Amino acid sequence: MPNFIQSKDGLSIAFNYLPGSSPAVMFMPGFFSHMQGTKALWLEKCCRERGQAYVRFDYRGHGESDGKFEDGTVSDWLNDTLLILDRVAPKPVIAVGSSMGGWIAFLAALSRPDKIAGLVGIASSPDFTQSIYGERMSDAQRKKMDEKGFISSPSEYQEEPVIITRKLIEDGKKHLLLNREKLNLDIPVCLIHGKKDADVSWEKSFELQKKIGPDQCELILVPDGVHRLSRPQDLELIDLEVQKIIKRVNSV
């Protein structure tokens, strides 16, 4: 059973905390995903086996947290992440973000440089709200969103359609990363991305690496990897890179 913590606006945010050695690993799930996903549970298993502290949680409107998915924005989900960082996760933290969670992880690291000591991005999807509106929506969908304030979009990962709101798209503009000249992060970063990712191009991770710098940021491209990166070999690679970041943090 998860634990719950109250957000400033009164929503219960679900989380699980596994105590253990420092630094703690904290998993940030993707858009319309949750803390019961394959990667979240795999990393918890790995951390438990080596006695590492681990935190996983659900954003509002996701999983077991309060709220409706369609009411949420990037700002809301970032605030939920910062709530868990500030009140649950022991310092220092290795942030591990999957897809949208990669974007959230970077935003959290920029907001809490004293707390996040390393970062692993898995098929990171920075600025995905811009990509949805500008690249993936048809003219008809954009018109419908402008008229109604939302569209309903089918998902290959979920049975129910995903509600994309104009509020989400507009809020995302406040948090764009790829339009910045540089990302000022003084922490070790590893980005893992499948070259066969049909949802988020690996070039997004390449752009992030350029803005951080290759001395601080390693980019690993999986030649046959798809967006989810949830095959056994993908999961093993993810934990291996998490362990490398842990060793770098502990050596400082």
Structure characteristics:
single chain, 252 residues, alpha/beta, eight-stranded mixed beta sheet, two-stranded antiparallel ribbon, 8 helices, 10 strands, globular
Binned strand content: 15-25%
Low-confidence stretches: none
Largest sheet: 8 strands, mixed
- CA(first)-CA(last) distance: 36 Å
The domain count comes to: 1
CATH class: Alpha Beta
- Cα radius of gyration in angstroms: 17 Å
Spell the H/E element sequence.
EEEHEHEHEHHEEHEHEH
The CATH topology name reads: Rossmann fold
What is the CATH-assigned architecture?
Answer: 3-Layer(aba) Sandwich
The CATH homologous superfamily is termed: Alpha/Beta hydrolase fold, catalytic domain
How would you explain this protein's 3D organization?
The protein has 252 residues and is α/β, with parallel strands linked by helices. It contains eight helices and ten strands. The protein has helices spanning 38-50, 74-87, 100-111, 128-136, 139-148, 166-172, 202-212, 232-251; strands at 3-6, 12-18, 21-28, 52-57, 93-98, 116-122, 150-153, 162-165, 189-194, 217-222. It has an eight-stranded mixed beta sheet with strand order 1-2-4-3-5-6-9-10, sandwiched between helices. The protein has a two-stranded antiparallel ribbon with strand order 7-8. The longest helix is centred in the C-terminal third of the chain and has 20 residues, at 232-251. 43% of the residues are buried. The model has no long low-confidence stretch (mean pLDDT 95).
